[in-house]
Specification:
3 domains, Arc Repressor Mutant, subunit A, D-Maltodextrin-Binding Protein, domain 2, single chain, alpha/beta, 24% strand, 319 residues, 9 helices
C-alpha cells in the first residue's frame, strides 16, 4: 500500500526541485525527507527521483505519483472544506416527517427560512405515517412533527414543544350560538357532533376537554378529515371542534368561535433521536420551527403564552 502522505512529500520535492528545498518548505530535515522518499520507493517498487546537478527530477514513476498526489491533495482539501461546512450547518440533508395540518402552517414557512439562511441544507419532506416515531428512533428521519401522545411513547426520542394549537368550535350558520364571541364548551353538551379526528391523541384531547366540561360528545358522523367535517357541519348535521391550524381553508357555510371553560388544545412537538450526534443544520431547523410558531402568536393565530420558551439546543420537554 502506497502511503499518500509520503506521496505529498514526493510532490513537494518535485515542485521544489531539491530535497533541501522540500525540507525547508515542510519544516523537516533533509535527512527526514530522504528517508520518506526511500520508503516510498520501496512501497512503489521503483526509483522515483534522479539527481540532476544539485537538484533532482522525477522519473516516469515519480512523475506519475506526483500527478496523483496533486489530485489526492486537492480532494483532501475539498473534503476538509465540505466537512467544515457540514459541521457548521452550512450544508447537509435533513429528513423530516410531518402531519398534514402542520405542513402549511409550520413546515412550509420553516423550510423557506432554512433555504434563505442555509441554502446548502437540503430538507427532504414526507407526510408521516400515523406514528412517525419509529422512523426517528431508527434513523430514517432526523425530525418528526407530532401531537403529544401518552407518556412512555417517547422512549428513545427527545421532544421540543413548539406550540399548543387550540381547538375552535365550528358551527353551522344560523346556529343559536353563532352570534357569541366565544362558546362555553358545556353549551355544546346536547348537540350532535361531527367527528374530525382519527383515534389518537387529537381525539383524546377533544374528549378530555368535553369530560372536563361535564359531558361526552355524541358523535353522529365520523369524518376524520377537517375539510369534510366542515361540510357536514355546514349541512346542519352537527357541530365540531377543529384545531386552528386545521382551519386554513374554511367552508363558507360555517362560523368559527373560540371555546372556553375549558379551552381544549393539542400540543405539537418536534421529535429527534435521543442518541443523535449534534447537527447544526437540525438545530437551525428546530429554531426555524420555533420562529414560525412565535410568528403564529404575533399574528394572533395562537393565543399568547402557548409557545414554549426557547431552549437553545434541542432538548427534552416532558409532559
Amino acid at each position: 500500500m502506497i502511503d499518500v502522505r509520503r506521496m505529498q512529500v514526493l510532490r513537494t520535492v518535485v515542485v521544489c526541485g531539491s530535497v533541501s528545498g522540500a525540507a525547508a518548505r515542510l519544516g523537516y530535515t533533509p535527512s527526514a525527507v530522504s528517508q520518506q522518499i526511500a520508503v516510498l520507493e520501496k512501497e512503489a517498487g521503483a526509483a522515483l527521483l534522479e539527481r540532476v546537478g544539485r537538484g533532482v527530477r522525477p522519473t516516469a514513476a515519480g512523475l506519475l505519483l506526483t500527478e496523483y498526489a496533486e489530485v489526492i491533495g486537492r480532494q483532501v482539501a475539498e473534503a476538509e472544506t465540505a466537512l467544515a461546512d457540514l459541521l457548521a450547518g452550512r450544508t447537509g440533508r435533513l429528513a423530516v416527517r410531518y402531519f398534514a395540518t402542520a405542513g402549511a402552517g409550520l413546515v412550509a414557512p420553516a423550510v423557506a427560512r432554512m433555504r434563505a439562511a442555509h441554502p446548502g441544507v437540503r430538507v427532504d419532506l414526507r407526510l408521516a405515517d400515523p406514528d412517525p416515531l419509529p422512523d426517528v428512533r431508527e434513523g430514517r428521519a432526523d425530525l418528526a412533527l407530532l401531537v403529544g401522545a401518552a407518556e412512555g411513547a417517547y422512549d428513545g426520542v427527545r421532544l421540543v414543544r413548539l406550540l399548543d394549537d387550540p381547538y375552535l368550535a365550528v358551527l353551522p350558520e344560523g346556529h343559536r350560538l353563532a352570534a357569541e364571541e366565544s362558546v362555553p364548551l358545556a353549551a355544546l353538551a346536547g348537540e350532535p357532533w361531527v367527528g374530525s379526528e382519527w383515534p389518537g391523541p387529537c381525539l383524546d384531547a377533544q374528549t378530555a376537554a368535553c369530560e372536563a366540561a361535564g359531558f361526552r360528545p355524541g358523535f353522529v358522523v365520523e369524518s376524520e378529515d377537517y375539510v369534510t367535517a366542515q361540510g357536514f357541519v355546514a349541512a346542519g348535521l352537527g357541530v365540531a371542534l377543529i384545531p386552528r391550524l386545521g382551519l386554513g381553508s374554511r367552508h363558507p357555510g360555517v362560523v368559527v368561535r373560540e371555546v372556553r371553560e375549558p379551552e381544549p388544545s393539542r400540543a405539537i412537538y418536534a421529535a429527534v433521536r435521543e442518541t443523535a450526534p449534534p447537527q447544526p443544520a437540525l438545530e437551525a431547523f428546530v429554531d426555524a420551527l420555533r420562529e414560525v410558531a412565535l410568528g403564529e402568536v404575533a399574528l394572533g393565530k395562537i393565543a399568547p403564552g402557548e409557545v414554549a420558551p426557547r431552549e437553545g439546543a434541542v432538548r427534552a420537554v416532558r409532559g
